[in-house]
Structures are given as structure tokens and as C-alpha cells.
Design brief:
single chain; Glycerate kinase, domain 2; Rossmann fold; 2 domains
């Protein structure tokens, strides 16, 4: 949590008041008293690291690592609040001893706070993963020449706006006034809030009540069927029938 395990594996010492290594996991962050970066693997000193980061969540707060992603991992409210407190203590020690304020920087809450660890201990620069990949594949150039844009995600909900790939695709499609269809394995809370980002329609692929495992097992067939149904609806407009 917070990238603590990663940096410990790379040689950084995270010590408690007895100068012993803190326990692993989010619980151990509450014990942190001293940081020793002199023991960091020498191969990482003086270099420059860019991290492809696909979300914009900060480490702390209502959109932070604990409160947004904790529930996804099965954490109850009590555990989430405790983890938030421990991450706050962790960030305070980092700011005091390393001079780096990481609590509210976009992306530091990614992957359970791994972004914070990269930035604080490895002098890394967090770059939106979508921007990095879209530049490599020249996505904007592809979209500007398209008639219809299609994207997809396993689950689409309000969290999708926080730097997820479909939101990035929507931004480009909106800039070029291109219609965008998004297929999803399931839809979550406040999905309608994404319409303003540039989504023309968000389409769930399931066609009946089913378990998660059944949906995963039959994902290919479900996606194909949903795509066919959607394209048949689009044919109404192609043949001018939608205006009759």
C-alpha cells in the first residue's frame, strides 16, 4: 500500500521507533517513524523514471486510494477509514523527511498508492497512461478519419472518468465531433454522468440475468451479439427509417 512494499523491495528502509522494519501492508504504515533512502538500489539513483498512470486519483481524500478503491477490494468502512489515516501518516512522514508532498497529486492514488511510492522515492514522473499509449499508436489521427468510434471496458461507472481508457477515447471523439459507442460487461453507479464526456451511448453486453462467472465465460459471444444488435439499430438511420 502506498508503494511501501515496492520501495522496501528496492532497498529503502522504512523503520519504526525501535529502528525495526515496519510490518508489511497498510497496517504497518501507522508504525512508520524513519525513512532511510541511502540503502536504495544504486542502479535507481540519479536515473529518470516515467510511470504510465491510468487514473488521476490522489493518494488521500474522497477520491483517494482508500476511499475509492478500498470498497472494490472488499474493505469495510472501518478498514477504509483506518487505511486513510495510515496513508495520511505515511504521506506526512514522507513530506517531513524527504520534502515531497504527495497527498494531493493526481495519480498518486493509483494502484493502491503505488504512484505515490514511485514519485516520493524514485523521483518518477507520473504520466497519464492513456496519453502515453495514444501518442504511440497515433489514436487521434485514427479517430479524426473515422465515422464511428467504439470502445469498451469490463465495467463502466462514474469511476471511468478518472483517467480510464474509455474516458480518454471519449475526449478525443468529442473534440472531433465523432459518435462514440462504449460496450461494457456491466454498468455501475452514476454511469449517466459520463454522457457529458462524449459518450453517445453506453451499452451493456449482458442479455439476461447472469452470474459474474457466466458473463466472463461467455464474454466473447455476449459482446458479438450486443454489437450485432447495436449495428442493426444503426442501420435504421442508414436507410432513413429512423425519420419515418
Amino acid at each position: 500500500v502506498g508503494g511501501a512494499g515496492m520501495v522496501q523491495a528496492l532497498g529503502v528502509e522504512l523503520l519504526d521507533k525501535q529502528n525495526k522494519s515496519i510490518a508489511k501492508g497498510g497496517k504497518g504504515l501507522a508504525q512508520l517513524n524513519t525513512i532511510n533512502t541511502d540503502t536504495l538500489d544504486v542502479r535507481l539513483k540519479g536515473g529518470k523514471i516515467w510511470v504510465a498512470c491510468d487514473v488521476k486519483n490522489p493518494l488521500l481524500g474522497k477520491n483517494g486510494a482508500a476511499k475509492v478503491y478500498g470498497p472494490q477490494k472488499g474493505a469495510n468502512p472501518e478498514i477504509i477509514n483506518k487505511l486513510e489515516q495510515n496513508l495520511a501518516h505515511y504521506s506526512e512522514v514522507i513530506e517531513t523527511q524527504l520534502g515531497i508532498a504527495i497527498a494531493n497529486i493526481p495519480g498518486t492514488g493509483a494502484a493502491g498508492g503505488l504512484g505515490a511510492g514511485f514519485m516520493a522515492f524514485l523521483n518518477a514522473e507520473l504520466k497519464p497512461g492513456f496519453e502515453l499509449i495514444s501518442e504511440i499508436v497515433h489514436l487521434a489521427e485514427q479517430i479524426v478519419n473515422a465515422d464511428l468510434v467504439i470502445t469498451a471496458e469490463g465495467k463502466i461507472d462514474y469511476q471511468t472518468r478518472f483517467g480510464k481508457t474509455p474516458a480518454g477515447v471519449a475526449g478525443i471523439a468529442k473534440n472531433f465531433n465523432k459518435p462514440l459507442l462504449a460496450f461494457a460487461g456491466s454498468l455501475g453507479p452514476r454511469v449517466e454522468s459520463l454522457n457529458e464526456l462524449g459518450f453517445t451511448s453506453i451499452i451493456p453486453i449482458t442479455d439476461k440475468p447472469m452470474s459474474l462467472q457466466e458473463s466472463i465465460t461467455n464474454a466473447g459471444e455476449l459482446l458479438q451479439d450486443a454489437a450485432e444488435r447495436t449495428m442493426r439499430i444503426l442501420k435504421l438511420d442508414y436507410w432513413g427509417l429512423s425519420e419515418k
